[in-house]
Amino acid sequence: MVDKNEITNAAVSKEMTALEIILVTKVQRTALTLEGYIELRIAQGSSMEIIRADLLKDLEEGGRIFGEFKNALKPTFMGSLGRFRDAGELAEMGLEGNWRWVAVLKNTCPDCLERHNQIKTWNDWEAEGLPRANATVCEQHCKCVLVPEKVAETAPIQRTK
């Protein structure tokens, strides 16, 4: 039997790697947007002073360039925290046994509805994509959970706004 510390350490290591990849990708995307914006404005005849002022305003006000990056941080970190929580539950319950996908989200995405009540091993879920692991339409916004198989089958909790 694998001990709790091994499970936790492996999960934390995977999550830290995933978080780094996600953040680097978001930074690179912002850099490309920024580079394209500057090139376009120069091609249209804007001065560097005007471009600089526009970019500072965008940064201060959370405009379309810097706002997109800032707005992506909260769901990224919330998803990461959820995956850390999942790792803690896994460490407590162990790798043995099967896990049931339970959809619990306002306006549940079609991917999560399809997975609702499916039962697989943790390793199989990990291969297919855990909740909040960007494998579903809702990505890191996912509120679904994996629970031990013995938990009774339930209808999806699908609240409306």
Brief summary of the model shown:
With 161 residues, the chain is mainly α.
How would you describe this structure to a colleague?
- The chain has 161 residues and is mainly α.
- It contains five helices and three strands; from the N terminus they run H-H-H-E-H-E-H-E.
- It is elongated and about 65 Å long.
- This is Phage head morphogenesis domain-containing protein.
Strand/helix succession = HHHEHEHE
Structural class: mainly alpha
Low-confidence stretches: none
Radius of gyration: 20 Å
Mean pLDDT: 86
Number of extended strands: 3
Which percent band covers the strand fraction?
Answer: 5-15%
Helix coverage percent of residues? 55-70%
Count of helical segments? 5
The number of domains is: 2
State the strand order across the main sheet: 2-1-3
Approximate shape: elongated
Largest sheet: 3 strands, antiparallel
Please give the alpha-carbon distance between the first and last residues: 44 Å
Topology:
Layout (H helix, E strand, L loop, with lengths): L3 H40 L4 H14 L4 H28 L4 E5 L7 H6 L3 E3 H7 L16 E4 L13
Helix pairs in contact: 1-3
Pick out its properties:
161 residues, mainly alpha, three-stranded antiparallel sheet, 5 helices, 59% helix, elongated, Phage head morphogenesis domain-containing protein
